[in-house]
Amino acid sequence: MIFIQLILAHLLGDFILQPNSWVSDKENRKLKSKYLYLHVLIHTVLSFIFLWDLDLWWIAVLVGVSHLLIDAAKLYFQNIKTKKIWFFTDQALHVAVIGGVSFYFNEFDFGFLKDEEFLKVLMAALFLTSPASIFIKLLLSSWTPVNEQTGSLQTESLSNAGKYIGILERLMVFTFITVNHWEGVGFMVAAKSVFRFSDLAQAKQRKLTEYVLIGTLLSFGLAVLTGILIK
User: Fold this and answer.
1) Opening angle at CA 229, ends 224 and 231, nearest 5
2) Burial of 86 by CB count in 10 Å (0-12 exposed, 13-18 middle, 19+ buried)?
3) Tens digits of per-residue pLDDT, 125-150?
4) Which residues sit opposite 146 in a β-bridge?
5) Spatial separation of the C-alpha atoms in residues 206 and 103, rounded to whole Å
6) 3-state secondary structure 57-84
7) Average pLDDT rounded to a whole number, residues 3-30
8) Which residues contact 160 (CB under 8 A, 6 or more apart)?
9) What share of the chain in percent tops pLDDT 90?
10) Are 2 and 51 a contacting pair, CB within 8 Å?
11) C-alpha 29: how far from its chain's center?
12) Per-residue pLDDT, 136
């Protein structure tokens, strides 16, 4: 229960009750920003309110002090290039502190690590990320449309966008199958057809269209097969 209470306090304090103007002031003035300390005070008060137990006052103080140290480190070490990395690192450290407190009170039960069903689902989900991407890439290697002048793939897109789209679609298809909602798979196929293949048709690149179509069918097929095997 402590974990949920502190996570709720964290979400309120870090996102809902922190205006963008405070964030900008903290990034510009760092430890000289009054909003940094006001932000920490809000976290401390919220933690105390959600715990609502005088005997647990030290947890609220611990959350506040750790929040100050973590935020200060982020403000001094982040730059434009590492801002995204530091954001996720900052959030992970805050959650780690909350998790450590919860672990101290024996709130976590690691028995799920011996649960066969959980391990099977975890194994399948991991397989459908990067390993499945590598399998599909190798299967399509002989058909990859390459520009004869540049020697690169004949497409313009965000860096690694196709890889992450594939991972997300496979995980979503796998989720739909494991919860017995096959109609969701149909929705995914229809949605991708509308957004992807319409653009390819307008580009009038038949080889690239066929390449993407084969890759999409392999991606969906692999996710469906994995889902069926796990079930």
Assistant:
1) 95
2) middle
3) 999 998 998 888 888 877 766 554 55
4) 153
5) 56
6) HHHHHHHHHHHHHHHHHHHHHCCCCCHH
7) 95
8) none
9) 58
10) yes
11) 30
12) 87
Q: What are residue 153's DSSP bridge partners? A: 146
User: Nearest-CA neighbor of 166 among 142, 192, 146, 190?
Assistant: 192
State how far the alpha carbon of 200 is from the alpha carbons of 184, 188, 193, 211, 213, in Å.
Answer: 24, 18, 10, 11, 10
Phi and psi for 182 in degrees, rounded to 5?
Answer: -65, -25
Q: pLDDT band for position 156 (50/70/90)? A: low
For residues 177 and 183, give the distance between their C-alpha atoms in angstroms, rounded to a whole number.
9
Using a 10 angstrom Cβ sphere, with 0-12 exposed, 13-18 middle and 19 or more buried, the burial of residue 200 is middle
Q: pTM of whole model > 0.85?
A: no
The b-or-e profile of 43-71 (16+ CB within 10 A means b, else e) is bbebbbebbeeeebeebbebbbebbbebb
CA separation for the pair 95, 86 (Å, rounded):
14
